[in-house]
């Protein structure tokens, strides 16, 4: 059998729009971080009122200019700090969308997080982004989640070095897997803090592939009481193999004893999700976030029964699936939990810990619910209800 040379395979992938090559860049990475502002000083004053949100990132910072930026390259370590929602800034007569931020030492950051947590209810929300994000789109979404939910506790954005390029998917996958160790160490540290009573984790897209193995790792290795403070896990448009998820999730993350201690997962899915359709085409198997029927015979059976041709993960104790297909928004339908009024309302309640909602429509499966347009308000003000502020680079 003839084999295809690797250069030909690479060319086919490039022409097919699957990958964009990444290089080192034109600046030595050491030069990006040479300025002292890239090295946080113990006890340095940070205005918590001006920078109310928290971040942890493995991105390489660029401290060569007045405004610190976080790049698409892998950093030399995980850095911590505070931020405010990104905004348009005029630099050299050009508008740029930038996130106001300040770095803190590990010790100072954890102390500030504890003070904020103690001042509230002991709850922490951790947001992990997905494919095609830069630091600004990550912080923008994290800030929207904080506003939209009115979360009563600190909100943390964890940002890994995604490329923020449509054709950067394979590079993003590579960097995401490279970051597994960083993220699981961070999550373990967070879960083991005695003052953290509940962790709400929200992951989007490719971020699910960081979150699920990390929770499993913390469950196996944590010295805390069964990692039970990781209780409310939300997977929005998860780009993870559906069958792998079904096979493995009950071993650790949704084991019977953890479900008994109130752990749960809510999965937001959409058949209209174009990004996950592309991921399915690339990987060959359906993603958890898309109710695509891989088995054509199963699809035919559903059609014969007059049901939508949508196939969901099997019923697993502790897991609820919410189908947002019918209220999908955006050019790709990949961020309905932040774009669609109906989905946003559901997401707000899930973050608050509510298990049921009258707006959900039951399906033939007990663990699956559909969200449908409100007949009395077929065109809701999505941006207003989702507390969304437009601006900067949109990533649907």
UniProtKB/TrEMBL annotation:
Coiled coil: none annotated. It holds the Pfam family DUF900. InterPro entries: AB_hydrolase_fold (IPR029058), DUF900_hydrolase (IPR010297). This is Alpha/beta hydrolase. Transmembrane segments: none annotated. PANTHER family: ABC TRANSMEMBRANE TYPE-1 DOMAIN-CONTAINING PROTEIN, TRANSMEMBRANE PROTEIN.
């Amino acid at each position: 059998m003839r084999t295809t040379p690797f250069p030909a395979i690479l060319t086919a992938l490039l022409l097919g729009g699957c990958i964009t090559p990444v290089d080192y860049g034109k600046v030595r990475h050491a030069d990006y971080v040479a300025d002292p502002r890239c090295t946080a000083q113990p006890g340095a004053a940070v205005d918590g009122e001006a920078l109310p949100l928290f971040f942890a990132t493995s991105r390489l910072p660029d401290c060569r200019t007045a405004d610190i930026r976080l790049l698409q390259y892998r950093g030399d370590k995980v850095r911590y700090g505070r931020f405010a929602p990104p905004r348009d800034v005029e630099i050299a007569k050009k508008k740029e969308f930038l996130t106001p931020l300040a770095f803190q030492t590990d010790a100072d950051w954890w102390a500030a997080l504890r003070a904020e947590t103690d001042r509230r209810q002991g709850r922490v929300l951790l947001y992990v982004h997905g494919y095609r994000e830069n630091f600004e789109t990550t912080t923008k979404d994290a800030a929207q989640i904080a506003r939209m939910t009115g979360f009563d506790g600190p909100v943390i954005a964890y940002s890994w070095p995604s490329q923020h390029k449509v054709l950067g998917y394979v590079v993003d996958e590579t960097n995401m897997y490279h970051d597994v160790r960083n993220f699981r160490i961070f999550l373990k540290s967070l879960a083991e803090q005695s003052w953290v009573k509940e962790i709400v984790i929200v992951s989007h897209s490719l971020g699910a592939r960081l979150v699920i193995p990390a929770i499993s790792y913390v469950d196996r290795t944590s010295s805390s009481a069964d990692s039970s403070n990781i209780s409310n896990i939300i997977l929005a448009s998860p780009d993870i193999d559906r069958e792998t998820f079904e096979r493995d999730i009950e071993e650790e993350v949704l084991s019977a004893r953890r479900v008994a201690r109130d752990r749960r997962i809510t999965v937001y899915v959409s058949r209209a999700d174009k990004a996950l359709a592309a991921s399915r085409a690339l990987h060959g198997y359906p993603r958890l976030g898309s109710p695509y029927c891989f088995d054509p015979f199963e699809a035919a059976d559903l059609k014969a029964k007059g049901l939508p041709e949508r196939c969901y993960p099997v019923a697993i104790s502790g897991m609820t699936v919410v189908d947002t297909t019918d209220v999908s928004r955006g050019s790709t339908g990949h961020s309905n939990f932040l774009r669609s009024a109906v989905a946003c309302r559901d997401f707000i309640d899930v973050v608050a810990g509510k298990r049921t909602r009258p707006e959900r429509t039951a399906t033939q499966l007990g663990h699956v619910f559909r969200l449908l347009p409100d007949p009395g308000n077929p065109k809701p003000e999505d941006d207003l209800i989702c507390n969304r502020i437009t601006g900067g680079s949109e990533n649907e």
